[in-house]
Every structure is written in structure tokens, then in C-alpha cells.
Write a structure and sequence with these properties.
The chain is globular, with a radius of gyration of 23 Å. The protein is built from 12 helices and 14 strands. It is an alpha/beta fold. Helix 10 links the parallel strand 12 and strand 13.
């Protein structure tokens, strides 16, 4: 698209610009420039909406006009992309649709008396690129089954491409065998999504990188951490006082990539181990946090046991303030009690999983990943990936 715009004549460009979709109709990801947070410059491209070729008059048959041709092309491309929402996180789906300047597709989802799920599309998707937004958050089995039936409904309605947009991928922690006779549930779920008819998966912050290999279809893996990085940069914490902490050894790569984006901040690691069954954990801290602002980074907070014990250790070692940052807020009991106990200055999460009102507490901050997912959907739909790296990867994999 860029090369075409460069080679087109100024007259053709000015006369056709009024017919193209207004690029300002959808907002950009609000990443202000900040010296300390090197998450990348704002995106610069001209293909946010589906590409519409600029046609010269001499290229058209006599019975066609350029105005009719371009308008028809715009109308055709605008109706080729459809977004449908499941019942797991409808607010996030609506935010994504608003960012993209689209309306959510009409879909009927209900439960029968025995718990069976019924799905019916209320509009045609024949030949369309369909995106189904449905995290498999608790209740995981209900939401997963709903996603599978939505995929099947789109496949039987002759959709051209079906992309499962899964902001939170459940069962991701069952990604390997740590003991004998265990199931690798992540591979099983990947097979179910593929066999249901999905052509592509768009996931956010998978628990481990190898989960992408369980799918036999393309997987677009984006990270929600740039949204958190931008928020932390706006707090103007002095870089000399900042230290990034991994709550366990398994999250060191994630924390190291996070620290590199925050002015290459120092890294600390909480090392916990058990010497036997029913024996209390022995926790040690690798690194210096005395008098510093500690930022604990993890991909998800479930019961908050690991991150709260890590915060206690950081305070014992002299940390001035402790922040908890996580993309996925599962918040299984007793997570809220632990997070609101005063250990954390602030708990920063994203809305990949909906947080009910009774789970809000004063230290909680919820950031939206709607712009990030919406931008990714546009680029997948446009078959474009150039220049998106600052938002799609942190170098973790």
C-alpha cells in the first residue's frame, strides 16, 4: 500500500482521498513518548482499513467511472470483516469493535435447561473473515465449549476464514508432563479448536511459548505487557529506584524482557523451594531491592499465593514499594484478600478476563488491551505485519 501511494500521481491521490475510509475514524493506541520506557514509536502506516487500490481513469472500461469502482471496493471490503462476541467477556469485545469502527455481529447464544449451549448466527457470514472473541476464563469448560460451538456455527455458515480471538487461553498451564500418567490438556484443547473449524488463533500472553506449537494452524501471539509498560512510564518513577522482580524462577525470561524495556532496570528473582511434602517453603531473594520500588511481573494471578509471599519477602528485604503487574487476572479465592492486604502499592492488570465489581479493591488498576487486539485484527485481516514488532513481541520467546 505504501509503495502504491508513493508512485500514484498527486492529482489521483487528492481526488481519491475523499472516497477512502477516514483513517482518523479509529483511534490509535495511546502510547505517549517517554524516555524511560522504550516500547517503540507510534505506528506509522496507511493501511489501517482494508486496502483500496487507487485506479486511474485510463485503466477503467468506458462504462465504469472511478468513483463507482472505488466506492464499491470500499463497500465490499467493509462487509468482509465480521466480529462476534461470546458471553465470556462482552465488554472487551465491544471495546475492540469500537476501536475498529465496526459493530459486533448479531449472534444468539443461550443455555437449555440441562446446560447445553445453543448458538445461532443472526446474519450472513458467507465468504467473510470472521473473528470470534471469547476468552476461556472461569468457568473454563463452559466458555471453551461455547467457543467450539461458535466456531462450528461459522464453519457451517460458509465463513471464508475463522479466527478464534482468545485473550486468555485456559488450560495453558497443563502444557507438559511433570509426573507420570498426566494429561497435556493444552494440546487437547488446541486439537479441539482446530477440529471445530478454526483457521487461525489470536492469543494474548500464553503461559508458555511452546503452547503455540500445539496448534496445527497459525497462531498470532501478542503480549499485553506494552500496555502495562506505558502505564508504568506515566508514573514517572525514577529509574535509579526501580527494580523488576520475577516471583519465581520460571518467569525470569519474562521479567528480564520487561526490565529491558524499563530503561534496562536491574532484575531480582524470588527463589522458592520445598524440601519435602507438607514442609514450609524456603524463600530466598537473588538481587538487591533495599530502598527501591519493586515491580513484580507475572503472566497471571490466580490465587495470588506466589506473588503475595514474594511481596512479603521483598518488604523484609527493605523494598520501599511493591507493584504487582499481570496480564491475566484469574482471581480465584482467596486472591482478593491477599492482594488487598496492604502488601502492594498498586496491582496492575488488564481486562483479558472480566473483573466483577465485588472483586474491586482500592489498589486495583485495570488497563484495556482492546486497542492492542483491535490493531492486531486489522493487520491480520490486511495480511500486514511490518512495523508492528514493538507491540507484538518483547523478545521473550
Amino acid at each position: 500500500m505504501t509503495s502504491l501511494l508513493q508512485t500514484a500521481s498527486l492529482s489521483s491521490l487528492s481526488s481519491s482521498r475523499s472516497l477512502l475510509p477516514n483513517p482518523s475514524s479509529r483511534s490509535r493506541i495511546p502510547f505517549p513518548k517517554c524516555i524511560r520506557c522504550s516500547v517503540g514509536e507510534p505506528l506509522k502506516y496507511a493501511n489501517g482499513k482494508p486496502c483500496i487500490p487507487l485506479l486511474r481513469d485510463e485503466m477503467l472500461p468506458n462504462f465504469l467511472t472511478r468513483t463507482t469502482q472505488v466506492v464499491n471496493a470500499a463497500s465490499k471490503n467493509d462487509t468482509r470483516l465480521r466480529i462476534f462476541s461470546g458471553t465470556a467477556n462482552p465488554s472487551l469485545s465491544q471495546e475492540i469493535a469500537c476501536y475498529m469502527g465496526l459493530e459486533l455481529g448479531k449472534i444468539k447464544i443461550k443455555r437449555f435447561a440441562d446446560g447445553e449451549i445453543y448458538v445461532q448466527l443472526q446474519e450472513s457470514v458467507r465468504g467473510c473473515d470472521v473473528y470470534l472473541v471469547q476468552p476461556t476464563c472461569p468457568p473454563a469448560n463452559e466458555n471453551l465449549m461455547e467457543l467450539l460451538i461458535m466456531i462450528d456455527a461459522c464453519r457451517r455458515a460458509s465463513a471464508k476464514n475463522i479466527t478464534a480471538v482468545i485473550p486468555y487461553f485456559g488450560y495453558a498451564r497443563a502444557d507438559r508432563k511433570t509426573q507420570g500418567r498426566e494429561s497435556i490438556a493444552a494440546k487437547l484443547v488446541a486439537n479441539l479448536i482446530t477440529e471445530a473449524g478454526a483457521n487461525r488463533v489470536l492469543a494474548c500472553d500464553l503461559h508458555s511459548g511452546q503452547s503455540m506449537g500445539y496448534f496445527d494452524i497459525p497462531v498470532d501471539h501478542v503480549y499485553g505487557q506494552p500496555v502495562i509498560l506505558d502505564y508504568l512510564a506515566s508514573k514517572t518513577i525514577c529509574s535509579d529506584d526501580l527494580v523488576v522482580v520475577s516471583p519465581d524462577v520460571g518467569g525470569v525470561a519474562r521479567a528480564r524482557a520487561f526490565a529491558k524495556k524499563l530503561s534496562d532496570a536491574p532484575l531480582a528473582i524470588v527463589d522458592k523451594r520445598r524440601h519435602g511434602h507438607n514442609v514450609a517453603e524456603v524463600m530466598n531473594l537473588i538481587g538487591d531491592v533495599k530502598g527501591k520500588v519493586a515491580v513484580m511481573v507475572d503472566d497471571m494471578i490466580d490465587t495470588a499465593g506466589t506473588i503475595s509471599k514474594g511481596a512479603e519477602l521483598l518488604h523484609q528485604e527493605g523494598a520501599r514499594e511493591v507493584y504487582a503487574c499481570s496480564t491475566h487476572a484469574v482471581f480465584s479465592p482467596p486472591a482478593i484478600e491477599r492482594l488487598s492486604s496492604g502488601l502492594f502499592q498498586e496491582v496492575i492488570i488488564t481486562n483479558t478476563i472480566p473483573v466483577s465489581e465485588q472483586n474491586y479493591f482500592p489498589q486495583l488498576t485495570v488497563l484495556s488491551v482492546a486497542n492492542l487486539l483491535g490493531e492486531t485484527i486489522w493487520r491480520v485481516h490486511d495480511d500486514c505485519s511490518g512495523g508492528f514488532e514493538p507491540y507484538s513481541t518483547l523478545g521473550i520467546d
